[in-house]
Design brief:
Elements: H1 33-41, H2 44-59, H3 63-74, H4 83-95, H5 99-111, H6 119-131, H7 135-145, H8 155-167, H9 171-183, H10 193-205, H11 209-221, H12 230-241, H13 246-258, H14 267-279, H15 283-295, H16 303-315, H17 319-331, H18 339-351, H19 355-367, H20 375-386
Length: about 375
């Protein structure tokens, strides 16, 4: 498996911001206040002023400023972007003992930015910083060990270094371990619900909305040996939703509309959270809103509005919405029967991987329901189902 090591933008607080798992970055954890303020205010004049100060301090031999200057030059969205200068300042910082400078050299070599790509040299510099205790670099060492294109590919070493980084508080490594143990899809990482839960909790303590969502999802639906827990589900989903996590908003809507006890049912809250999630183009939220109107949960039953929401969900390739529309049109439930529209939505769902829809297509093509018979297409979908 090839794990891409990606660039990462300096955040408004210049902390180690995490975009996705399996990502090595050049982020800086202890930035100079002056540049921090400029980023926070999105003020070009402040940034230029900060850049001049950093340049002066770097030229005066301050290693931390040299390392920070290198990272500014590495930022592709900065008008200071220059990989050659980034390397020059990273080398100066590294030679002066700055761990982030060492990590930046590794990053530049790993990506071939301003130099020929060489993950052996990248690993050398990542290891220098990692061995000296930099959690960011420890994560980067793990990422390279887990790249199957790397000649030293070693999942056991990857696990070791991810755990070092995670135990040292690096959020990216905590999320990576949690994701890997949740899915069990990666070499060296068997599925382990409890380990996944443990690392998501560590990440949630750092206010990661993704970790909070995953924990909420575990407790809402249960996951292997992790039992359903309404109290914890609500706690973590609310934390993530309040940070703008659209999947958490959707799950929170599900929680309030399907609670096991009456005290958990609150259709107005369900509608509000699902609406917020739908506004962020969450496909599942459109389906769940459709169900509120289809079954009249917390509001008057309105099949027309339900169909509108299902169609919006279908446009976002939500399989559940497509199947619901197909069934409504096929069976004429609460709406006029329309075999062609039923075929249309079964076909969309089938193309998105729904085996249920694929089974319906075999029958539709074989019997010519709403469309002309087509034995070849019936055979195609039948063969696909048998694979």
């Amino acid at each position: 498996m090839m794990i891409m090591i990606k660039n990462i933008l300096i955040s408004s607080i210049l902390s180690c911001v995490l975009l996705t798992a399996n990502t090595a970055t050049f982020a800086y954890e202890d930035p100079l206040h002056v540049y921090q303020v400029g980023i926070a205010k999105n003020d070009p004049q402040q940034l230029d002023h900060a850049f001049k100060i950093l340049s002066a301090q770097a030229n005066a031999g301050d290693a931390a400023s040299q390392g920070q200057l290198a990272r500014i030059y590495m930022n592709e969205d900065s008008h200071f972007f220059d990989n050659q200068l980034a390397m020059q300042w990273a080398i100066k910082a590294a030679n002066a003992g700055d761990l982030y400078g060492m990590n930046s050299i590794g990053y530049l070599y790993d990506h071939g930015l301003g130099v020929k790509e060489d993950n052996d040299i990248a690993m050398k510099w990542f290891r220098k910083a990692a061995d000296l205790g930099l959690p960011l670099a420890q994560n980067n060492v793990a990422v390279i060990y887990h790249e199957d294109s790397y000649k030293g590919y070693d999942p056991k070493q990857a696990l070791k270094w991810f755990e070092k980084s995670a135990n040292n508080g690096y959020l990216e490594a905590q999320l990576t371990l949690a994701d890997y143990f949740r899915t069990g899809c990666y070499d060296g990482f068997d599925q382990n619900a409890k380990k996944s839960e443990y690392w998501y909790k560590k990440a949630a303590e750092q206010n990661s909305s993704e970790a909070q969502f995953r924990l909420g999802d575990f407790y809402l639906y249960g996951f292997n040996e992790i039992q359903v827990n309404d109290v914890l589900a609500q706690k973590y989903l609310l934390q993530a939703a309040e940070q703008g996590h659209d999947d958490a908003m959707n799950d929170l809507g599900v929680f309030y509309s399907t609670g096991d006890t009456d005290e958990n049912i609150d259709y107005q809250k369900a509608y509000e959270w699902l609406s917020k999630s739908a506004a962020l183009k969450n496909p599942a939220a459109h389906y769940n809103l459709g169900n509120l109107f289809l079954y009249g949960e917390g509001r008057s039953k309105d099949v027309k509005k339900a169909i509108e929401w299902f169609k919006k969900g279908s446009d976002l390739e939500n399989i559940s919405s497509q199947l619901e529309l197909a069934k409504l049109y096929s069976e004429g439930i609460e709406t006029k029967s329309n075999n062609f529209l039923a075929f249309k939505y079964y076909k969309l769902a089938a193309e998105n991987g729904s085996r249920e829809a694929q089974q319906h297509l075999v029958r539709i093509y074989d019997e010519g329901i709403g469309i002309p018979k087509d034995p070849k297409k019936a055979e195609y979908w039948s063969t696909l189902l048998s694979e």
